[in-house]
User: Which sequence fits this backbone?
């Protein structure tokens, strides 16, 4: 191995280490930025959260790969139902992926909400919520909402609120019950990279949703009826 080749290997290793270190620092920075930005906008107590006309439920699959129920899905639906029946939201916008005929997150969410006695007339489906950014931005650009209650697990709400604030949406988050770490380890690990990607998408790339389209009207607000199930 000649001296020139050794030198090139050394420079390559230094480059790899530098890129790795910069990436690690950016991931930590993104996590801090998104977490601190949303800390006073998240609620876990239904009695304390302010009222909004529309609640946005962020989509996920109803079942995991082995056929078991997805607890992230169950807890988000339960949280949305709770907000609705306590009069904290009037309409529920369910936004998720419907990329082929056999995979339809919004319809699954709608059906699950109806099973919890949320009327069909108060559920609106967004079939092009292919990512968190798509769901949040489409809520404004397509469904004409500039104030939202976002409904998901805490880590997901943090990211969604960061997107909303940078896209001119006044958003708060209602925290669905989280999933035990032993079950959600991969999701929580993936979330660290998702936060970094979100900062890149919003601040540097100014990414837009895959699809927009014509405005869709969500009917105007009605007086919130406290404890609708009573």
Assistant:
């Amino acid at each position: 191995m000649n001296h020139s080749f050794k030198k090139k290997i050394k420079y390559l290793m230094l480059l790899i280490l530098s890129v790795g270190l910069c990436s690690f620092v950016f991931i930590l920075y993104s996590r801090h930025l998104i977490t601190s930005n949303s800390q006073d906008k998240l609620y876990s107590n239904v009695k304390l959260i302010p009222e909004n006309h529309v609640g946005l439920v962020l989509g996920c699959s109803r079942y995991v790969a082995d056929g078991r129920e997805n607890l992230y899905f169950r807890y988000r639906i339960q949280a949305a139902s709770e907000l609705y029946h306590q009069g904290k939201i009037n309409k529920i916008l369910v936004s998720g992926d419907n990329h082929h005929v056999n995979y339809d997150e919004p319809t699954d969410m709608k059906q699950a909400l109806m099973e919890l006695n949320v009327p069909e007339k108060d559920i609106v489906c967004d079939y092009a919520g292919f990512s968190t950014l798509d769901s949040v931005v489409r809520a404004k650009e397509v469904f004409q909402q500039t104030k939202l209650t976002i409904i998901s697990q805490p880590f997901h709400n943090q990211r969604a609120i960061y997107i909303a604030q940078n896209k001119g949406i006044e958003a708060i988050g209602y925290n669905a019950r989280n999933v035990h770490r032993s079950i959600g380890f991969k999701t929580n690990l993936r979330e660290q990279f998702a936060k970094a990607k979100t900062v890149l998408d919003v601040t540097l790339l100014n990414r837009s949703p895959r699809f927009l389209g014509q405005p869709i009207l969500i009917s105007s607000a009605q007086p919130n009826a406290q404890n609708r199930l009573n």
Q: What stands out?
A: The chain has a mean pLDDT of 88. The chain is about 45% helix and 10% strand. Residues 3-38 form the longest helix (36 residues). The longest strand covers residues 147-152.
